[in-house]
Amino acid sequence: MQMGQLIVFTGPSGVGKGTLLRSLLESHPELELSISVTTRAPREGEIEGRHYYFVNREQFQGLIATGQLLEWAEFAGNCYGTPRTPVEEMIAQGKLVVLEIELEGARQVRETFPGALQLFILPPSPEELERRIRVRGQDSEEAIARRLHRAQVEIAAADEFDIVIVNDDFDRALEAIEMALFAPVS
Ligand SMILES: Nc1nc2c(ncn2[C@@H]2O[C@H](COP(=O)(O)OP(=O)(O)O)[C@@H](O)[C@H]2O)c(=O)[nH]1
Ligand SMILES: Nc1ncnc2c1ncn2[C@@H]1O[C@H](COP(=O)(O)OP(=O)(O)O)[C@@H](O)[C@H]1O
């Protein structure tokens, strides 16, 4: 059986990762999205087990202690991690598994899964990034400030990634991602 592959999607909060991925998953059923665990409170409309598994800090610590997370990191005051078993099972089944994770997690995956393809999504400008976070209207002022501060660090690390795509025009960014994932390597 052919082994699957891990695909890492990273980029500053608000750049459009979630929106791009939703579109990509709709047209590519061979892609599977890993559902992360987080200590962040659910946003309006977020569903347990679909957007995240929502846990408290103690439960999260338990997952770390028992080796159940493939990677994890703290971001803007909350913990986020990738459950190990589902990802390993999907890879064994030959699936293309997408991890939508922040920079520290991507760095861990680079060590543990050097064969993973790592994509970084950039905003057209810092101003547009801030506009998108605000338009989304889901975060407090404090959460927005933390995300924008962290965005500078993440953007500065973009060239660590295999492929960097600017999410300016949405359809063009989507096309560039599809090329990166599915175009045959010559
Ligand atoms: N390391 C790591 N980062 C994650 C994981 N799940 C989500 N993230 C990242 O955590 C950051 C915050 O996510 P979230 O609170 O949903 O905010 P948003 O990116 O502003 O929508 C984003 O950069 C996500 O990519 C995970 O399992 N591991
Ligand atoms: N290319 C784009 N042009 C304009 N707005 C966009 C574009 N891509 C995404 N957005 C919008 O930006 C906001 C943040 O997108 P989201 O997918 O939640 O970001 P992330 O998952 O990276 O935090 C959403 O309101 C989304 O509709």
From TrEMBL:
PANTHER family in the cross-refs: GUANYLATE KINASE, GUANYLATE KINASE-RELATED
SUPFAM superfamilies from the UniProt entry: P-loop containing nucleoside triphosphate hydrolases
Secretion signal, residue range per the UniProt entry: none
Domain Guanylate kinase-like: 4-182
GO cellular component terms, A-Z: cytosol
Keyword check for Kinase: yes
Enzyme Commission number, as recorded: 2.7.4.8
Cell compartments where the protein resides: Cytoplasm
Keywords: ATP-binding, Cytoplasm, Kinase, Nucleotide-binding, Transferase
Coiled-coil features, chain-numbered ranges: none
Protein's name according to its UniProt entry: Guanylate kinase
Domain of life of the source: Bacteria
Pfam families reported in the protein's UniProt record: Guanylate_kin
Transmembrane segments: none
Binding-site residues, ATP: G11, P12, S13, G14, V15, G16, K17, G18
CDD domains noted in UniProt: GMPK (cd00071)
Any GO MF annotation of the entry: GMP kinase activity
Main localization (coarse): cytoplasm
Keyword Cytoplasm tagged: yes
PROSITE patterns: GUANYLATE_KINASE_1 (PS00856), GUANYLATE_KINASE_2 (PS50052)
